[in-house]
Design brief:
Length: 231
């Protein structure tokens, strides 16, 4: 019996790599989708390619979208990435690392590919705990997008199937995500989460993403196997 297809959004980071492992554990045939969207930290795409290859995905596509033409984010513009922020600071408003409408754009591309593949399942690694400042990581946003998807696609309107947006990490802490991934055999040494890595891909260790990642490993009494810049 053929496996059910699923589109998995794969950035090359810790969360999306864990989600890919979860989709496989659930028995789906994963089709991985990454984006070259004008991000400054394109090393993550090298990681995504390696992760997709190691996990034997059915297909891996990298879509080109130039969000840098709009700017408005430290990830797509010449804006300094915040460093050394406290946990309290991270909960104060929407951070400058938020990329305007990024998840809506990514999910729309995933939805289009899913329709072509006759797939009804899309996996995304959003998290409402560690990234509470991002409006497009909230459960209500995901619910709204799923509803829209089932109003906007031929496959749903003609009654062939309902689109489901899976967010298996949305209520987990970073430590819980790491624990789950390790149980599934995820190699976190080939992932890259940093907002400001160097040219070799070594993580800065002090941006919000690095801080949360290191905190997660620390809470488990583990050392992060990823490469970091020297202090």
């Amino acid at each position: 019996m053929d496996k059910q297809k699923a589109v998995v959004l794969l950035s090359g980071g810790l969360d999306s790599t864990t989600v890919l492992a979860i989709a496989k554990e659930l028995g789906y045939e994963p089709y991985a989708m990454s984006f070259r969207y004008g991000q400054r930290h394109r090393f993550e795409l090298d990681c995504a390619r390696k992760i997709a290859e190691d996990n034997g995905v059915a297909e891996h596509v990298i879509a080109d979208i130039d969000l840098a033409m709009f700017g408005g984010s430290a990830l797509t513009s010449d804006i300094e990435v915040p460093k050394d922020r406290s946990a309290e600071d991270m909960t104060m408003g929407i951070p400058i690392t938020y990329v305007p409408a990024r998840n809506t754009i990514f999910l729309s591309f995933a939805l289009a590919w899913a329709e072509v593949l006759n797939a009804y399942d899309i996996f995304i690694g959003v998290n409402a705990l560690d990234y509470s400042g991002y409006p497009d990581c909230r459960p209500e946003y995901i619910d709204a997008f799923e509803k829209m998807a089932n109003l906007a696609t031929r496959t749903a309107v003609e009654g062939n199937g309902q689109i489901h947006i899976h967010t298996p990490l949305i209520d987990l802490t970073k430590a819980e995500i790491i624990r789950k991934g390790m149980a599934l055999g995820v190699d976190y040494g080939i992932t890259n989460t940093c907002y400001d890595p160097d040219e070799q891909g070594a993580a800065c260790g002090t941006c919000d993403a690095c801080t949360l990642r290191l905190k997660g490993f620390g809470e488990l009494g583990l050392t992060d196997p990823a490469s970091y810049q020297e202090a």
